[in-house]
Amino acid sequence: MEAVKEIPISGRNPEAKYIREGHHEHPSLLPLIDIPIIDIGQLTAPSEADQKIRSALSTHGCMIVTNHGVESWFLDKLRMLFKQFVALPEEEKLKWKREVDGFEGYGSDPAPNDFLARDWGARLRITIRPEEFRQLKYWPENPPEFREVVDEYSSKVVTVYEVILKALARSMNLKETSFLHKMGEPWIMYARFNFYPSCPRPDLVFGLKPHFDSTVLTVLLQDKELEGLQILKDGQWFRVPIVPDALVINVGEQLEILSNGEFKSLYHRGMVDSERERVSLAVLSLSNPQSGVEPIEELVNEERPSLYRKVIYEETTHFDYYKSGRTLIDDARV
Ligand SMILES: O=C(O)CCC(=O)C(=O)O
Ligand SMILES: [Fe+2]
In angstroms, what is the span from residue 327 Cα to ligand 2's centroid? Predict the structure, then answer.
């Protein structure tokens, strides 16, 4: 099948199918955004940081968190294991390839349609929570430690989500567990390991096209050295800085709905480097599809009627949305 064969090759000039429309400046020439960097180490009880988080996410749609409980050496190891996977010979990686019309596994994204350029990148997607939803046939066994380290990272990220979602609920005078409860149990996590080959013309391609995440929140581990995440704010694209060992937290469409519009989902994209390969790891959190996604009751009242109707979303429908060009919010908006 095509998903692995279509992966762009580092250092090559992009063919027509990868070239985005229009004329664009080099991605590194865009301004850097100043987004809040928040220490979440002490966030287990009500504190001033609750309001800081609320304000960061409602103003910027994202924040950078430190003291999140995942050690620096562990993050290095996680990035390194994925880089080792990417460096394997193609036949070996094919063992964990995404099937035609499949959702999990390693490969490039399908062409969205005949007009939009393909991304200069490839991804490994796997379900990581709850454990019984995991499909191990898509979990690389090479390098040998990959599965174990990803499993350990999953539990650490669950804690990060719990800490942040509880703080957000407190900041809005809701019961601490409101968001988590509304997501339904088990709420779901997917891992998306992104690989961006180098490209001599980063101005011509997207590593990952502009998009909203259809998540509650996304926890993004950036490359240790190479910038590439860019966000749109007030009509202008900005570079997001690398803060060593920090995690980037993005608001997704489901949080926009759950919070009845208090938080707006972040429009963002991934760019590539002219000389070096880049990786990132997004862990996506989503409501249980059986619970559906709708605003929390306490956030709907006469002054602020519900802005969204209840929608059902499964990440396996990601490519259907992708191809149609619609988003979850388009379906939910009243
Ligand atoms: O690679 C990046 O920095 C962006 C990744 C991303 O937005 C995603 O996986 O949803
Ligand atoms: Fe994203």
Answer: 13
